[in-house]
Write a structure and sequence with these properties.
By secondary structure, this protein is an alpha+beta fold. The chain is built from 5 helices and 5 strands. The strands form 2 sheets. A 3-stranded antiparallel beta sheet has the order 1-5-4. Strands 2-3 form a two-stranded antiparallel sheet. A hairpin with a 6-residue loop joins strand 4 and strand 5. The two termini are about 30 Å apart.
Length: about 230
């Protein structure tokens, strides 16, 4: 029965509701099938939304874990304002990475930095406090050209130290983003349950109508034979 209903739902556009053979019961079945079709579209959309939320939460969780691992390192500098030593790559992560992750049209995870236009300044995306606290003891290293083997005029950060409290602030910011996604997950789950329930009601209605229609036809056949 379910497979027959699914097949009917997929071919609704081919049904001629203006046909003289289209009865009142047929109209009720048609309406319920339209509802099922609509619920299926909603469920598909919500499934994609829940998948995206799960992906975003995973990205923020990974960032938080990376930041928390930095806090476990040995303190350096002032005891009242302890710092931790980080590599150049870790520094770039701390200074530049406070992303608003999103899923692009291709269904892939990305963040706001990949979508900046050329006329936007990189400084607008930097964590000024983090940058300032690390500036005093940044160590630079010259960049070697991979093709020629010669040193370039430019340099990159080799290592530096940053305040632990700045790392903790960034962790809290990311946790707030996670909380927002958790709320979205709860709302989506409730909506999913509601739509699933409504879809089941519509399917049950179709099944009951078809059974009654079949029963009526069987009675007619028996009366003719009898």
């Amino acid at each position: 029965m379910t497979s027959n209903i699914s097949s009917a739902t997929a071919n609704l556009s081919a049904i001629n509701i203006n046909s003289s053979s289209f009865s009142g019961v047929d109209s009720l079945i048609y309406i319920q099938l339209l509802l099922v079709q609509d619920y299926d579209a909603q469920l598909k959309s919500m499934g994609k939304e829940i998948k995206n939320i799960t992906t975003l939460k995973g990205a923020y969780r990974k960032d938080i874990e990376q930041l928390q691992s930095l806090l476990g390192r040995e303190n350096v500098g002032d005891k009242d304002n302890p710092k931790v030593k980080v590599s150049g790559d870790e520094y770039n992560f701390l200074v530049n990475k406070n992303p608003d992750y999103r899923i692009n049209s291709e269904g892939k995870l990305t963040d706001d930095y990949r979508h900046l236009t050329k006329d936007k300044s990189d400084d607008l995306q930097k964590d000024k406090l983090m940058e300032k606290s690390a500036k005093s003891d940044i160590k630079y290293v010259q960049i070697k050209d991979k093709k020629t083997g010669k040193m370039k005029n430019s340099s990159t950060i080799e290592s530096c130290s940053v305040l632990k409290k700045d790392i903790e602030t960034k962790i809290e910011t990311l946790k707030q983003k996670m909380e927002g996604l958790n709320e979205q997950s709860e709302i989506s789950s409730l909506s999913l349950q509601s739509i699933t329930s409504q879809r089941k009601i519509a399917l049950d209605s179709v099944s009951n109508l078809i059974n009654k229609q079949d029963e009526g036809l069987s009675n007619i056949v028996r009366n003719i034979k009898g």
